[in-house]
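Fig. S4 source data, part A: sequence.
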Amino acid sequence: MFFVAPHAKESMTREEKKRNQLLTSTLSFLLSNTYIFSAKSNSYVAFDSWHPCLTGYIRFDIRTNVHDGTLAYIDDRGKFDFFYLKLIEGKPRLLFNLGNDRQALNVNMKINDDKWHTILIKRNGQTTILSIDNGLAQNSTITHSEDLYFGGAIYNEYQASPFYFGGIPAVLERPSSGNLSSFDVYMQPRFRGQLRNLVYKNCTNSRLIQPDPIDISDGVSLIPNQHCSSSICGVGICLINDNTYKCLCDETYYEGNNCQYERQTNELTFHGKQYLKYDLINIISSLSEIITFEFKTNHYDGLLFQLIDSNIYIRLKNGQLLIEYRFNNSWYESSTKNLYLIDNQWHYVQIKRKYGQITILIDQYYLDFENDIKVDHLFNFTQLLIGGNNDLNLEKFYGCLKDITIIFNENLTIDFNQSLTNFYEYNLIQNLNCKALINPIQFLTSSSFISFDLPNFSQQMNISFRFETYSSNCILLYSQSNQDFLGFDLIDGFFFLTFNINKKRQRQELFQQRFNDGESHYIQLELRTYQIGLELNVMIDYRQNTRISIRSSSSKINLHTLTIGGVNPSIRWLPTNYFSGIMHRGLIGCFSDLEINNELINLEKYINYTNNNNKIVPKSGPCSTILSTKHQCLCEHNGECRVNNGGIWSCDCSKTGYTGRQCEQIAYHLDLSQIQTFEFNTNIQWSEHISDVSFRLQ
């Protein structure tokens, strides 16, 4: 039950009319009201539950002149966890319990001066903050309990009572009811004063919300809001002042008096080729750091940050976040486990080093790493590299980063979003907003492929891409017209270029090493035509370079269709010197980052237009051969586990002197110095198709 204050616009005396008015009022009307608490024996307002997880907060305004009283209370329905905010001699005090760690926060500021004050309760991983008037006075504490989640032991487990303001229902004040996690609340007087502008930040919603009142008791009256409407603040939240309103645009992409202007963001887009360097003005010596940022990606590997001189690396490896650091001339690492971060969605990360302990907060997951040693020594910092470095052996980041902040020694904050003046760019095109990320392509069977028409080119063509596979023999890509052909493939893991033009056939093995190791490899081809012929320059992994010149009476090459990963059955012929092609050995693995003449190609849009004869089509999305189902091949005698043509893991014994399913049998040897011919009857019916015949010479 409730009544309308005498100074409200309309005065009613009958409780039934008042309740009908409450039920028929618009939601925006209720959410923007000012609630007046009389401190009667059963006065309170109950709102929807607050679900803070590890990064949520609640803020509201109060006005009072009393010394003591219950401001707000919520618990996990009588189990363990609770938050209880009260006034003690005019000063706010927060009692709370998470798991088995009961704690208290006091703020040394009186707020019972009959003026409006804003109260903020905020969670930030282990840290809980109680702040008054936007930080004018505040206090914080760290929770060391293993259970940091309010309302449950894990992120997805949540049970909580309504959030009560001004007091709790009288039925809960009976100790025998057993429905309270903290009995301190019923020992405190009820609140007398005013409440307005209640706002939640829940972990279940990316936007701020104004919670619904679900129960308004006797002794609580309303002052209807005359200023706010449902549309006046756009996507923001309307907060009321005494004579006007203010729009709260936090947690949105908008700003302005009415949240009407799109907020300029500093989202950086990386395509695996560029990075940023930030020079610190002075050397910073630090015993503790807090690094926060948000990222999104669809690639499993890449360097996010490198902090110099202490050489701290933060990177993605096999889809998990990895922190590497050097201590006493040894390298140590801490890594997340079993978190799905490669989903092209924004993820919030906070990495903290304090008291020798390293902790990571990712979204709503808290990870505490236990090390044999404490990393409590002094780190020195002079530079920050973002998105990569000049080490060609370390894969650069592909994705987007934003809201990068580092706090040194808890008192020096560098906000990289405010100023980019100290940034040095290395092939980075800055964008205010994260550009759409193009998904890698995963080829699941050797019969799948992608084909599309190539644009016309006159004097030169540049093609670059990444691949990763365990297949020994496979097609990477090829292009052809009536007479001309260009193709890349792997044979026994070695990289081959096939190039046929003007009836001249050429096939060459490049780089003298195997590339079917499941790692990501970068290929770049530059093709230029001259009056006397053509020149090809092929580079792999930014290191090895091969240049091929072909003298020809014609300097033109006609390449019409590009096929990736397999044999396109609509193409009736392939040259006999393109071995993986004529054996129909398609790629089983990943293909990504295709650029033609410096234009990034989205292969996903060609999947639906490719005729794969009802075979399994390539899959668009995050891709890694390392995370594929790799059976334990149990290869003996240094045999290697490889993917065969059917996508099955098997032992490759070609580098050993053994054979058999697991390289367990000694291979027979023939001494050709003693005989000139040798006949072997296999009793096998040979088909007209090409079959695999392999042997080794020494």
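Fig. S4 source data, part B ends here. The first strand starts at residue 3 and ends at 4.
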